[in-house]
Each structure stands twice: as structure tokens, then as C-alpha cells.
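Narrative of activities, Objective 1.

The group set out to show that a structural description can be obtained from nothing but a protein's sequence at a throughput compatible with the screening campaign. Below is one input-output pair from the validation batch, recorded exactly as produced.
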Amino acid sequence: MGRPRSPSTSGHDDGRHRADELGLVGPGGKADDLVAMIADALAHAGVAVTDLDRICVTTGPGSFTGVRVGLAAARAFRMAGAGRLTGVSGLAVMARTAARSMRAQGGFARTGDGTVLAVAAEAYRGEIYLGLFDGDGREALADPLALTPADAVGALSAAGASRLVAVGSGAMRLAEAAARAGLDVEPGQASLRPDARNLALFAHELPDAGDESLLPLYLRPPDARPDAGRSLERAGGRRGP
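Output recorded for this entry:
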């Protein structure tokens, strides 16, 4: 997360894994490896594209190339005969993952007790991607944003939480900025990322998305501008690379 250069794929059958998660972690894991990884996952599972009931993909935020490649691959497999298509933000996947992990360790809060789970992923350029969720990690409390840690503290303050827990690669930076502002934030799970296995665990709960409604979530402008008329529509009606 941040710049998602480490894609992952996973297969499930009625809640059970039929294929081990396949992922490339670190600088060697590139977006252009994704299609080959999906082919490997299908081979491990012993299924064809036409056997897939659902394709689920993270829509961002992240690098423009990574987001575009993931969405394009999902649409391509859908056109090749896979079943329904679903998209969800990577921040939402991380929120579900973090909440489940903390509950397994015991004592983590649930919905309704005032806990806010802040997913803070490194976005570089002095910013983090911030998503605020309830204690179960299921409900987004605000639209995701790309902010400096100092500005993100303002969003946390406005949430009016009785307890603030931050997770992700930007959690420590967020907690440090919050401490300077007199706000207590509990950081953790710095290595958290939106991997495919965790997404597959709740993909069946997500609404279907048509090919045209599956839009990238960029959160900030591109570094380079494409030629007019050659860009993909992005969430919110704007256009991106």
C-alpha cells in the first residue's frame, strides 16, 4: 500500500483456499507481473477463468500504474468469462484485516463503543493515505484522503473517538503527529498491506460492480498529464491517467 508494487492473488472456494496466496514482495514485485501471477494461482487451484464466480480487485489508492493495471486485469478476466466483478479500496481491506487480527488477540473494540480505526498508508511526498473506519473495520466513517500527517490529525480530532487506533505503514508517523497535537493514537501493524487472501475472505459480502462503474481511486493528481481525450474516468467524475 502506498505505492502498491507488491501485487498478490488468492483463490477461494466456499470460504476455503484452493490456492496458496501468491505475491511478490519488495522491489521485485511489479504491477506488470500481475497477469502471470493470476495464471499461476489458477493453475495451483486447478480451475479455468470460466470457473471463477467472482473477480475482486482493489481500486486504490496507490500508484497510477499499479491501480490501472489491477483494474485492467480484472476487467480482462471478466471479459474472458469470469463471473461477477467487485471492487473495493485497499484501505477497506486493511481495515478489515487489522480489526480481525486485533480481535483474535483479544480485547479489541467493536462497533458502537467509540473506537475509530485509522488506516494510514505511506503515500510518499510527505503524505499518507488515510481511511477512517469503525471498530470492526467494516464501515467507512469518512471519504479516504491523501494528507500530511499534521492535517490527518485534524481529521482524527473531528472523528470524536473515545479511542484511536492507527494501522499501516504510516501509522507511526500519524501517531507522532497526533502526540505533538496532544492527541493519543495507538499505532500498530506497520507491515499491513491489502493482500488478496484477506480480500477474498469478505469479497462475497461486497456489491457487484459493472465494468463501467469500477473506477480507480487515486486521491491526488498525477505527476504527468496525458494527452487530452486519452485518460480513464476516475471516481468522482474527474479524469486521471
